[in-house]
Amino acid sequence: MDIRLTEAKDWMLLKQIRLAALLDTPRAFGVSYQAAANYSEEQWKERASSVRTEFWLAIEGGKPVGMIGAGVSSANRYNLIGMWVEPAARGTGVATKLVEAVKFRAVEKGHSSVFLDVSLDNARALHLYLRLGFSLIDEWQPLESHPDITVQTMLWTSGN
Asked: How far is CA 57 from the centre of its chain?
């Protein structure tokens, strides 16, 4: 399996995995399937090649089996976003490798911390992040795409 940062040429793979994620777990992300499905080819290319918010793909046999994104927020926080692994690849280490890629990139870019938001109802994700060194902090907010869902912030700090 290969974990790689996306480039403009990867836009179709990113679109494929992102739409699959939104169909599989529509209430886990800050954007709806319909909104993402309506992005133009140019918008997908911009997403795949952006330096502001970067995306990584987990590729197995030429096919994307997982994705993750990260970028710096307006509060200058390095945030992990959009993590998803296809059901058949769950429990195989794909998620760990994707999260580790984001943590490595954060440190490489001079950030000592990575933040993420998780619904406490998503036990599988919560346990993964706890196992990978994240801890819950006392910050809560509604999920933008589904305001009825409250997410809690988690924090990983390098050196812990």
From this structure: 10
CB 3 within 8 A of CB 10: no
Please count the structural domains in the chain.
1
CA distance 101 to 107: 10
Q: What CATH number corresponds to the domain at position 32?
A: 3.40.630.30
Tens of pLDDT, residues 20-44: 999 999 888 888 899 999 999 999 9
pLDDT at 160: 59
Single-letter amino acid code for the residue at 16: Q
Q: Which residues of 28-53 are buried (b: 16+ CB within 10 A; e: fewer)?
A: bbeeebeebeebeeeebbebbbeeee
Query: Residue 96's beta-bridge partner residues?
Result: none
Structural domain containing residue 27: 2-157
User: Of the candidates 77, 85, 70, 116, which has an alpha carbon nearest to the alpha carbon of residue 20?
Assistant: 85
pLDDT tens, residue by residue, 126-156? 999 999 999 999 999 988 878 888 999 999 9
